[in-house]
Amino acid sequence: MSSERAFWLVRGVLFGTALFAVLAHALLAQGGSVPPWLLAICVAAGVACGRLGAGTAAPTVAMARPWLVAATLVLPAAIALLLAYGALATPDRAWDGVVAWGIKAQALTAAPTLQQPLFADPAVFHHSPDYPLMQPLCVAALGRAVFPLQYVLLVALVGLGALRRTGDRALACWAALGIALLPELIGVGGGGVDSGYAETLHALALAAAAAALLLGDAVLLLAAALLLPFVKPEGTVHALLLVAAVSAFAPLRMCAAAVAGAALSLSIWLPLQLQLAHAGPPGPWLVPGVVVAAAVVFAARALLRGRRLRPGALVFATGGAVAAGVAVLLLAQPLFAGSRTVLFAHYLGDLERAVHKLPASATIATHLLATALSPRRFGALFVLLALLACARRPRNGAAPAPVPHSLAAFVVLLLLAIVAAFYLSPEADVVHHLRSSADRLLLQTAGVGWLVVGVGLAPRVHAAALPRWLAAGLGRTARPQA
Amino acid sequence: MLARAMKSLASWLAVLLIAHAVFGVLRLPGSVVARRLGEIAACEREGHARYTLRLAQQSGSDAIVQLLAATPPDAVVPIRGVRRGAIEFAPGLLWPRLCVDAAALPAGARTAAGRPIAPFVLVGDGAALRLEPR
User: Fold this and answer.
1) Do A457 and B14 touch (CB under 8 A)?
2) Domain containing residue B19
3) Residues B33 and B99 in one domain
4) How far A124 CA sits from the closest chain B CA (Å)?
5) CA–CA separation, B87 vs A350, rounded Å?
6) B67 and B126 fall within a common domain
7) Environment class of residue A407 by beta-carbon count within 10 Å: exposed (0-12), middle (13-18) or buried (19+)?
8) Which residues of B touch A107 (CB under 8 A)?
9) ipTM for the complex?
10) Do B11 and A118 lie within an 8 Å CB cutoff?
């Protein structure tokens, strides 16, 4: 299969998965059941349309030596087989896998509806009842084989995304190997592919957003924005951050895709989340409010299309947007507190908590840095990202920046959201929260990180005359002349 | 000088990239394969409930095992106590039995919504679980 067809396949599967997320959650919200064939039909439809609007790949600028191609195919395949065994041999073995995700998957496997005591009766206890149901629905439809499939999709998306953006087959192989061999992803701890956690699926959704921004792919961006809120509670925040980054820095059609995807998924998810949390019926303003907010964001972006803002106006607009966000957060405090949901009540419902945790800032910063830079957790990923962020861009004529501003902004916002989680968390013991969550939150950004590393390295390796031994080690050869 | 620094940076980036992959490959036999196979073997040997609670540094697996043996799959298990720690595992380990707030069950009733009620109350006490007669 050519890399072109492989990309269409991955893109189609992602779009089909997003379509399934929307339809399945809409069915559940209406009191219906999710037919067992729905996932297969949606994925088939997505694959059939996988080529639509995919754009063209960058021309090949460098080839990979056969040993590198072989390693990129064989190693992830072997690891995927091991992860499949790890997922299928026993039920969930790690904490959140058992308490938060596995039980929902078992309940939906038995009956794919919310009209059963586990979800409908507030007296029935289970942890985090308001968590999104995308992963449990996938496990109910396909069994635990979905875990290694998510891993394969993530590795393929990173490699093929980097290849389409750069045309450098060797660096695309290294990016794919980088994510495929990431210790935290393939290890046995909570958050690993076969641990039963939803971190891999979330990393996949975020990587889809990053690949879409790299490739200017509005359809893939729509899929990512649709998927994010249905995977994990923080997906709602990530979808909003995606909208913010895209509205500020990406072309209008990308903004339209992100805004439409986020608005549609949140219109379905937010009322359903309140239902799952047994918080009473949503206010009549909730869904219209989401639609109006989306329309305002899109209209503002359309109004500014093609205009060049003076730096002063840009600072004013950014400050205004941040102030408006803070004002909305403050005004909505009573609503958040009453929602009984993990995201809105527990994290965003008591902003004073963040002030009380300010003295722990040094602990939060050092622990996050130590986790990110630990080779046993993330290998060299965050060291590479830090070096690329600090390095001066090589002069390469009028070539655009290797990483678009929208993606750079999205990455920065994602990292800020991770830091904010430790200030806003209801967990009073900051060190305990850091130990239990820092690695998992950083893991969610791993696919995005390897895409950025792949495309960020390409112009540097082009521009630099590497020592011969190093060039040979990279397995990179010049493109054969026609 | 800048050009030299750029070349040097490119070399460092390439070295880091290769080092990441080599380190990942070297970890495969021990940290990825052997540890995973060891955990699966331990889970099969000890049983799911005992293994999962031990791995999470929680106790009370005896209570879970006793409930699994003494109640039918459609039973309702009354629960009481703190809803953090070991009790979080109970719904997943006892499924398809349902863990229901003991206060929400009618006193003295033997069934709830057609499901038999377990003769014990599962009490969550931080990192521990215990059974009390209902």
Assistant:
1) yes
2) 2-45
3) no
4) 4
5) 26
6) yes
7) buried
8) 95
9) 0.93
10) no
